[in-house]
Amino acid sequence: MEARWLLGYLLSKPDNWTVVIGDIIKKGGCGRDKARKMIAELVEYGYAEREQSRADGKFGASNLVIFDEPRSAEEDQSEPSEGVAFLPQTEMPAPAKPAPVLPSPAKSALSNNLDSENTDYQQERDARDDGSEEKPEAIERAFRRWYAKWPTRDKDSEYAARKAWQKLSPEQRTACITKSPTYIERAEKAKISVPWAGAFLTGRDWEKLEDPKSDVALPIVHGPYTRAWHAGRCAELLRPLFTAMPSLTPFQRRMVAAGGEEAEAILRERRSKYGWPKVNTMDERATDHKGVSVAPNVFRISEKFETTHRNGELAQAWERFFARSGLPWLPIPAGVEWFFFPPVPSDITDLDAAVCEAWSAFERQVNEGNSNDA
């Protein structure tokens, strides 16, 4: 069981990653002997193969090559190995004809070389080494390793990034090292561009991971009939109409075929009832006092939403707009007195025209936010 865990852990690392024995001990919560036992089992069952590099006719660091599937005995015999010990043996005499280092057929995932840059151990050490402004060499070493993993490094200004790095406090640099991988991962999932390294450091953008209005924050659930909930519901109603609706009854078909206001009323009712299933789900959850998560850009827009009483003239104007547009109006449970809607322009006295303009402005804001995030 332990060896199976170790295999999964090693295969989960990128191809250029190196895991040292200390990583296994720490991640597996075991001692050195147990870690070596797990490694031996991987070798025994063909999931790992020992490989030792040579330089200038001398033995170098010992590595394990990890395989997704076990190697058969035939494969082992077709590719003779040296059978060297796992630990480095730099004191042994050099062979007469040093063998060349063969390319690894899979991930070179395990090493005794504690100075390797791409290891879990090294990332944690970077954060510790960066803990003192009195060690400029440690600060520079941590910067180089952080910058080497930043997505824009190939076309970025390393000079600007280094200056911004040096202005950070030790605590900020530690937080940056720890949280940058999460920031990159969430930015990729949200399909937003990662900023230039210098801008990221200057703005301390890793702190946005905890800001619910940030595009890289985890979505949070907003309670029913809050500003964010209203904005999320309105944003859903901007989406294309869901066309998979129940069939018209024979009577409805005749009415629609005849045309006129009654036909339009039937079609509006169907759009309102079946056109936005997610809105229906939001309304059902709201009756059970359950909220929903709202996109960060919509959450930001919601902060400008205006309050209107459920029986006020402005709320009635919004209800008329929803009816004309075939949009489902809000369910109004007992105890809910206030609604939130996009702000209406103050220079338009006709409320029906004002709410129409406010809806158009809201749609532009949402679309602009979606375009910027893509």
From TrEMBL:
Residues 91-136 are annotated as: Disordered. Residues 122-136 have a biased composition (Basic and acidic residues). Residues 109-121 have a biased composition (Polar residues). This is Helix-turn-helix domain-containing protein. It comes from Rhizobium paranaense.
